[in-house]
Amino acid sequence: MVSPLHAKLFRDLWRIKGQALAIMLVIGIGVALQVMMSGFVASLTQTRDAYYERQQFAQVFAPVARAPERVARRLSDIRGVAVVETRISGSALIDIPSRDLPVSARILSLPAYGMRHLNEIRLTAGRRPESGKIHEIVLLDSFASAHDIVPGDQIHVTLNGAYRAFDVVGTAQSPEFIYYAAPGEMIPDDARFGVIWIGRPALAAALDLKGAFNEVLLTLLRGTDVDAVLDDVDRVLDPFGAPGAYGLADHPSNRFLSEEIAGLEISAKNVPPVFMLVAAFLLYIVTSRMIQSEREEIGLMKAFGYSDTEVSSHYLQLVVIIALGGAVFGCFLGVLLGRLTIPIYTTYYKLPFLLFRLELASFASGILTSVLVASLGGALALRRVFRMTPAEAMRPPSPPDYSKAGAFGTRLVRHLDQPTRMVLRRLVRQPWRMLGAVTGVAAGMALSLSMLIIYEGFDEALDRTFNVIDRSDASVSFVANAPSRTIFELQRLPGVTLAEPVRNVPVVLRSGRKSYSGAITGLAPDAQLFRALDADVEPISLPARGIVLSAPLADILDVSIGDEIVVDIRQGSQPTVVAPVSGIAESLMGSPAYMDLEALNRLLGEPMRISGAYVSINDGEQADVYSALKDMPMVAGVSLRIEAERAFQQIMDQGAGSSRFIMGFMAFAITFGIIYNVARVAQDERARDLASLRVMGFYHGETAFVLLGELAAVILVALPLGVGLGTALSHLIAAGFSTDLYQIPVVSAPNAYGTSISVVVVAALASGWIVQRDIGASDITLALKTRE
Amino acid sequence: MVYETMSQQELAFRAHGLTKTYGEGRSAVHALRGVDLEIGRGEIVVLLGPSGSGKSTLLNILGGLDKASAGEAWFEGHCLTSMTDRALTGYRRNHVGFVFQFYNLMPSLTARENVELVTEIAKHPMSPEDALHLVGLGARLDHFPAQLSGGEQQRVAIARAVAKQPDVLFCDEPTGALDSTTGRAVLRVLQDVNEKLGTTVLIITHAAATAAMADRVIHFADGAIRDVVLNDAPLSAEEIEW
Whole-structure pTM over 0.80, yes or no? Predict the structure, then answer.
């Protein structure tokens, strides 16, 4: 037996189904985002942690030029060190027959005995090299599949200047290469960067490192201070030419993954509440209206002896049903979106598996928050039920008093027609509702606008990086530092129009207690192809003395132009010098520091040395140049600008494309939810007014103006507010997400503004259209007969 | 029948076989069952009858608020029953004034502004102030509905209806929510408008006494006109027994 109140509940729900659905949509998106993002965080974190543990991923990494194996003992004596493992690491070029240019690769030693201890590889196919078989290698899984290489194939590799054939016996993944990009780039491209694992004796022989190592991996005992260990490791390895040890936190692959997780965590915390607040506001106005129009029924129920609590719980049930409906929908949507989109992560993050993890906690918190927030909105409206006595409630309400709202108007509105006055007075009479609507629309718009601006920023970064800062066609790196005259050899190659030298030197920059381990890029003073640019995108002339820091680096070191910093050079004789900061350069990728090439060489005491070159090539002659470069023994790698740009573009198209759509949809949903509900409530409240206008001979459009004028006003105020909030938010997001790895510029983004404004306007028009349609459809005589 | 004596020029309304049916089949409700009538210009006509007898339906069709299922209704030279929605809106806008039981004032506009709402879109309106003086509210021009009594609100509604100087004034239970003194005052205003402006006035009422002020009284029953009574000596509003 259904109680009459329950029957009323379901009929009420059915009657306001459009509004209820719009609110459920807003709640649903909020919950879906929360479920999805916290699911991503959980999936990525748990997968990462499990993977690191299973493969015994090291916690400290220390490259060194060449250290004898016995030094390892001294490292294991360091307090807090659990396991020490030495290995050999080098760079190589893989010759892929289908490509003009060889692909640069890292080559790493596998221990000669049994299984490795640290950074264990995870075989995806085939087997490990057998001991003694020096031609057997394991290849990075993603690189192998990008080139259709399978175990049993043979590949040709240039290693330390020697061109050799190797048998691929297996493919593998590694926690070291979850996220990786070719040297000097930040966007992963499976095809253009390879990793080779080979037995240690073979690699030691090839790189002339028998009985020695050039990299050491450490794990630490629980609770060990990493910084102290890093200092100790540096002390031990310094005499052997070590650029400096770094911890897991600074490991490039781990950093990218961790930054991603941190960003998701921030979004998961901050975005869903916006939707919840909007939903609470909507439920408040809908419930308020319902209570207002049902005051007689409420009075009657009270007169029959229903208590305030019983009456309130009736309305609260309605609110809770809507909230629950939205939340459950959101949970399913979140899981669906999560399952659908999590594979995107595996294209960038090479995890052995990545399943979307259902976080039951996020389910529970999503549902609980929606119900709580919705109830809060409902409860605010329900206060009125308690205030009404049955007799009072059953009396018809007197007309709403506009005498206060009207007072503002007499002079101000003298020149306005009556319908406009009606619109204005209503806005003024219910400023909180209007403010709520304005804030809600502006918040929804700001959310999407800021993300769209960020995407435009990426586009700008793409353009600036590849067309303004780097105008070369290819960058060439040498096996070892070469004499500067090498540049002329490149310049002489047929097809090369310009070749400019560069020297990259690993350094640790210090200012006070702050330090940053990176590299200085030495450039020719009149460089054309690769330049340091200032904030106005004008080239900075590199002074004979002094160093130009990229903006993020200046931030990290907390220095500005004129300050002096300590430069610990981690190459050659490893001198430590003091240099003044002579300029701040814009950069969008990494945190470079620039110096005049000759000045840098002077500091090193190694005149006329370069580590690579930027070249520009005549159209149509690329293939000739590439094949010539392929044959030059000192060339360690060639990276093509166009390929890097393409990889970047691809990531933009894949990731950002769908995100843009989602952002647009979010703004649409919020705007639609708000405008539709506010319009419905306004229409409901004013059914008689609108009918009267129709009776008096106002045309449909004139009547719609009175109803929709206030919504137009809401949108007109919300648009500039949304633009302001969105712009401010984009600055916050850009600042929050920019790291020394990459910087997100905030650019003027006309497209982003255009898109978000259009979405809001379209959503408003759509909801306005649906509501005004009903003005025509409603029976105008009926509205006049019934008392409010 | 009486109305056959009037010439076309003297007629405000005429209807022939006017039928209105709501719903279909067995559940169909016949609100009007083939009504024929003529109403002269400048007359005060009172429509009497029990609830559901069809008087409101007739008023709605003549006022351009509803459409007939069959039959014809003419206002002067215009056939109301063949007009589009837009044309009907234009008809209400330019020729008709309405007064309702629940006043239907715009709460957000003052008395004067409520009247201006109509004068702004009318072709030959009187000044809003004159209209409000006519109903005796010259002193309360800038009050909002919430600050007026029921009778005052109804008088504003009448001022609003007459300010456009309509050809016809339709009043659906104009005194239904009012006490006798206020009710009489309201009827007085309707009579004044009729006398001073020559407006045809149609009044629906449950209060049979109101019929005493009419030139013509039409009795409704079961969706049809039961009889039409001509009143050669209408009483003034003050003389009506409430």
Answer: no
